C-alpha cells in the first residue's frame, strides 16, 4: 500500500506541474468540463491522503464522486447539447449518470463501452460506500471490535482506480489547452503510469 500511496502522490505532483495554470477556452462548456475534471484531480489527492491516514471509509466514499466527475466532464465536453450546458451552469441538470454514459458511448471514440462496464460492475458498490450502505458498514468491524477493516487489496484497487481516472481527467484537460507539448507530456506519462 505504501508504494501505491507514493505512486498516487507522484501522479498528483506530475499533474499539478503539467496542467495547473494552463489556459483553456473560457466558454461555458469548457469551463464546466474543466471544473468537473479538476474535481476528479482534487478527489484523487484526497483519497490518497485519507488512505495514508488510514481513514479508508472516507477515501472509499469519494470514489463515486471521482467516477461521476469524470463522466460529467466527458458528457459536458463531448455529448451534451447547448441547452444541457446551460442547465448544468444553472444547476438544473435532469439527466442521470447512466444517460450521460449512454450519450458519451454513442460517440465513436467512446464506443468500446468502458464507462458502462465500470458502471455495471462497480457503481452499486461505489454508491454503497458513499451512502453508508453495506459495502461501507460491512467493513467497519472484525470479530471483536467495531473499527475500519479494509483489505490491502481493496485499498490498492481504490487507489488504482482513482489514479487512472485522475490521469484520464488530466489528459482531457491537456487536450483542452490546445498545447501539443502538454498533451504529449501528459499522454506519455499516462502510458508509463498504467503499464
What does this structure look like?
- InterPro entries: DUF6988.
- Pfam families: DUF6988.
- The chain contains ten helices and no strands.
- The model has no long low-confidence stretch (mean pLDDT 94).
- It has one domain.
- It is an all-alpha fold and 195 residues long.
Write a compact overview of the structure shown:
The chain contains ten helices and no strands. By secondary structure, it is mainly alpha-helical.
How would you summarize the topology of this molecule?
Elements: H1 2-19, H2 28-52, H3 56-61, H4 63-79, H5 82-89, H6 97-105, H7 114-130, H8 134-137, H9 152-176, H10 180-193
Pfam family, one: DUF6988
How much is the radius of gyration in Å?
A: 17 Å
Helices and strands, in order, run as HHHHHHHHHH
User: Could you tell me the mean pLDDT?
Assistant: 94
- Give the overall shape, derived from the CA principal axes: globular
Largest sheet: none
Number of strands: 0
Low-confidence stretches: none
Tell me the fraction of residues in β-strands, as a range.
under 5%
- Give the oligomeric state: single chain
Approximate helicity band: over 70%
Count of all domains: 1
Amino acid at each position: 500500500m505504501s508504494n501505491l500511496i507514493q505512486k498516487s502522490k507522484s501522479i498528483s505532483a506530475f499533474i499539478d506541474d503539467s496542467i495547473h495554470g494552463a489556459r483553456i477556452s473560457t466558454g461555458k462548456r469548457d469551463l464546466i468540463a474543466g471544473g468537473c475534471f479538476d474535481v476528479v484531480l482534487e478527489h484523487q489527492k484526497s483519497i490518497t491522503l485519507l488512505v495514508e491516514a488510514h481513514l479508508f471509509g472516507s477515501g472509499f466514499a469519494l470514489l463515486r464522486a471521482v467516477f461521476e466527475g469524470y463522466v460529467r466532464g466527458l458528457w459536458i465536453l463531448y455529448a451534451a447539447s447547448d441547452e444541457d450546458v446551460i442547465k448544468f451552469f444553472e444547476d438544473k441538470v435532469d439527466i442521470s449518470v447512466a444517460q450521460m454514459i449512454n450519450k458519451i458511448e454513442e460517440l465513436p471514440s467512446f464506443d468500446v463501452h468502458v464507462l458502462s462496464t465500470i458502471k455495471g460492475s462497480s457503481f452499486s458498490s461505489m454508491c454503497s460506500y458513499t451512502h453508508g450502505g453495506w459495502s461501507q458498514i460491512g467493513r467497519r468491524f472484525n470479530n471483536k471490535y467495531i473499527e475500519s477493516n479494509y483489505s490491502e487489496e481493496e485499498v490498492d484497487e481504490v487507489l488504482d482506480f482513482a489514479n487512472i481516472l485522475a490521469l484520464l481527467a488530466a489528459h482531457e484537460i491537456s487536450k483542452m489547452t490546445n498545447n501539443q507539448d502538454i498533451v504529449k507530456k501528459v499522454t506519455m506519462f499516462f502510458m508509463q503510469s498504467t503499464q
